[in-house]
From TrEMBL:
UniProt-recorded name of the protein: Cargo-transport protein YPP1
GO cellular component, one term: plasma membrane
Function (record text): Involved in endocytosis.
Membrane topology, as annotated: Peripheral membrane protein
Basic and acidic residues bias: start-end ranges: 678-693
Subcellular location, principal: membrane
Gene expressing this chain: YPP1
GO biological process: endocytosis
Compartmental location: Cell membrane; Cytoplasmic granule
CDD domains according to UniProt: YPP1
Alphabetical list of InterPro entries matching this protein: Endocytosis_PI4K-reg_protein, TPR-like_helical_dom_sf
Region feature (Disordered): 676-712
Amino acid sequence: MLIENSVNVAHMRTLNLGCFPKKVLEFEDSQEFLEQIIFLDYQLQLFIHNKLNGEGLVPPERADNIGYQTELLQMITFLSSVGANYHDSSKTYEEKLYFNVVLSQLHFLNLDFDSVRHQLLQLEVKVNPNWDYTPNTVINEFLASLTCRYYTLLGLTKDSYKTWVEYLKQVKRPFSKSQASAQYWTDCLYDKLAVVLSSGKTVQLSFKKDVVIISNDISIMGFSNYLLSSDYASLVDSKFHDEYNTYLESELSDFRHSHIGFPSAKENSNELEYMVGGMFLSFFNVSSRNRLLKAQNAKNFLISCSEKTYQSQVVLSAMIRVLIELKEYDEAFAAFKTWVAYEETIEEQHDGNIHDILQVIDLYGLCIEKFNPYKSRNRSKLFKYTSLETLITALDKYSAQLLSYLNKLEVICGLTYDSSDSELAKDPLSFLTTKYNLNILLPDNSEYVKIVSRAWYAMGSYNYFLVSYKCPSFEKLKNYTEIVATYLKNALIVNSTGRCTYLFQYALILAYKNELKPAMKLCKFILKQYPESFKTWNLFVLILSALDVNDKSGTIPSLGNQKPTTNGNGNGQISTETLRDLETFIKSALNIAAIYLSKNNEVPVEVRYDILQLKLTQMALWESIYGVQYVLDNLPDVFQLYYELFNVPQEIVRDSNLKMDSTINSTWSHRPSFIGPMEKKSLKQDNNKEKQSIKRLSRMGTMKSTRSEGNSELRSRSSVSIIERKILQELWLWTMKIYAKIGLTEEAEQCIVEAETVWEPNVKTFSSVAMLTSKTRKFLSLQECERCLEFLDREDINFHIREYGNSILCLAKLFVVDDNLENLIFISTKDLNAGVIRIKNYLERFLLSWPFGFNNSEIWYYLSKIYEMLDDRTLLSYSLWRAIDLEDSRPVRSFEVVDELPF
C-alpha cells in the first residue's frame, strides 16, 4: 500500500521501528497532539532506561522511591494537561489509544493501579481492529503495537492470565520485523505470562497444560519459541520438547495436506503466509540446541508452501534462511536472487516505498555475511556451482543495495553516524564515550539493533575480503581500508556492547592500521565485558609489545617493578621490563583459560585454538626475554597443552594412513634429505639432546592423561578430526622454526617429517622446506617455491594468502640476497635480471593484499633491494622507509595469528 506523505504517519513509522523521531525534544512545545504524546512517551522511556535499568514493567517494590514518584507525578500532570487541551472530537483513534497507554504506564510505575485500569477502560480496544479502517499500513501497524501494549498493561491490573490468554487467542497475524515496537511489547507480555504460569519461576512449564490452551497456532508457536530462547528454557518440563515437537509435526502435516491450493488472481488470502511468518519469525531466534524443527523438515514444508503461493516473499525468505542453515549455498544464492527480483518489482510498483525495511536489511545482511568468499579461505568451498567472479559481481551489487537501504533507514529513524568533518570521526573509539543516537533507547540485544549492526558488519567483512584478496590498485586499497574501518565502526555505533565478535574485529583492524593505542583501549574494554575472549587477550599482548617498540614513554600498563634476570640471549627490540609485564598478562590469561576449560565440557575448536595461540605468544615473549634455548626447554609444555586441549592421543594422530615411516630417522617419500653428508656428520656430534627432545615431543601423546576427572576420556581413532590434525601439523612447523633459528637444521628437518606425518604434505610444508634450505640448498629451495606457487596460483584454492606470501619471500631471498657465491642459482646476468623482474612483479602484486602483504616489512625490504638494483631512487626511498616504519611497530608475533581459525 502507498505510504501517505504526512508528518504524523512519518512519526508513526519511526515509532513502529522502536525508535523516536530525531527531533523528539522539540515536540514539547509542539501544537500537535500526537507530537506532545511522543515527547512524553520519550521522557517515560528515558526515565525507565536511566532510573529503572530498562525495566518498564518493574515490580512495585522497585519503583517505591520518593524521588522517582516526584518525577513520575510531573510527567503525569504534564500529559494530563496536554490531553485536556484538545477536544475529543479533534483526536483520532490512534491518538486516543496512544495517550491512554502512555498515561496508564505512568500510573503503573507510580503504583496507582486503580488509575491504570480506569484509564485503560475508558477506550474500547479490539485485538484485531478493522484493517480497512485506513488504507495506510503504517497506521494499522502502529495500532497493532498500541493494542499489544494496551493488553499487556491491562493484564497487570487484574485477571492477568485471562486477559493475556484472551489477547493471544485473537491474534490473527504475526508481526513483521519492522514492527519492532509491537514485537517488544509481545515479548513483555510473554515474559509476564511465563512468570504467572511458573508462579514466579518456581514451577516448571508444561506445553499441554500451559501453552496449548491458547488455541491459536501463531501465538502457540511464538510463545513456545520465546520460552525456548529465553531464560525460561531451563524452566520447561521434561516433556515440553517432545510435546511441542509432536505439535509442530502435526501442524506441518495438516498444512501440507490442507485444502489450500495455488491462489487464483481473485484470491487475497494470506493464511499460509501468516502461518509461515508466525512459525519462522521466532524459529531462528531459538538456539540450535533447543530448536525442535529440523532444518530438512522445514525445507520440505517450505517447498510444499511454495507450491501453494505465488511469488511469496515470506515463504522465499524463510527458505533462504533454511538453505543457509543446511549449507546449501548455491540453492540459497539462487533463491536470494529471485527474492531480490521480487523486492525490486514491488518497490517499483509502490514508488520506491518499502513496507518491511528491517526484513529487507536483515536478509541482505545475512546473505552478504554468509556468502562472503572470505569464509572459504581455508575450508572446503561453500559454493559448488557458482564461480568466484559471479559471486563477487553479485555481492558488489547487493552491498550497494544494502547501503542504500541503510541510508533510507537512517532517514526514517533519524540515525546518526560519523560525518567526514566531525570531531567524532577523528576518534576511532568515540562510540564508547558518546551516545550517537539519543532517540534510540532499545537494548543492544533487541531485534532492531542486531539487524542494523549485523548489516554494517557484513558489509565491512565483505570489503575486508576485497582488500585482502581482490584489490586491483593502491587507490582501491586505501579506499577499501577506510570503508572496512568505517563500516565496522558503524556497527559498533549501533551496538557497542552486544557482540564480542564485532568489537574484536574492529580492534584487529585498528591494529592492522597501526592505530595501536585505540586498539589497546578497545581490547581492555572487550576484556572487561568478555574476559574469556582468549584471542582478545592475545591481541592485547601483541599490541602492547608493538607499542613498547614505538613508545618508550611508559604509557604501557605495568604490573610490577621487579627487574628480570636474563641469560643474554634475548633478541627483541622491546624493553625487558615490559616483556615481563606482558608475560604476567599472558599468565593471567592462561589461568583464566584453565578455569574456563574445567567448567565447560564442550568447548568449540576455535576457542581451543585461541588458547593454543596464546601459549605460542607466551613462547615468543620468553624467546625475547630468555633466548631460544629457554623456549626449546619448554617445548614439551606446548605439546602437552595441545594434547590436553584436544584430548587426542598421539598414536592416533600419527596413524594418518599416509603410509609414511614417522620415526625420528625418516625422510620424505617425495624428496631426499636436504642436508648434505658432510653437514650431517658435523651436526651429529652436537644434536643428540635436541633429537631426544623431538622424540619426547612426538611420543608425548601416549602419556597418561593429566586432565581432571570431570573431563572425557581420550577419544577413539575415528573421532580425531582433520582440523585437529592440521593444528598439530602447524605446531610442528612452528617448532621447526625454533630449531632453524639456532642452526639445528637436521632437527628442523625432522619436525617437518612429523608435520607431514600427522597430516598430508601441502603448501605449508613445501614453503617450510623452501625457507629452511634457502641458504644451503638453493636449487631444492627454488623447486619447493615453484611447487607452492604452482599450487597456489590455481583459481579454486587462491585463499592461502599467508603461504603465498611465504613462498614469494623465499623466492626473493633466493633471487635478491646472494650471500654465498658458490650457491648462486643463476648461470648468467640475463637469467638474474629475468628472475629479479619476476620476483618484483610477485612482490608488487602481493602488496595489494592488505594487511598480509601491505603490512609485511620483509616484502617492502626486498622491494627496496630490487629498486636499488634497478636504480629507482624514489621507490627505493619509499619502500625502505615503509619497511622501517613497520619494523618500528612490530609485535613479538604477527597480528595475523589472532585472526580466524585458518583451517
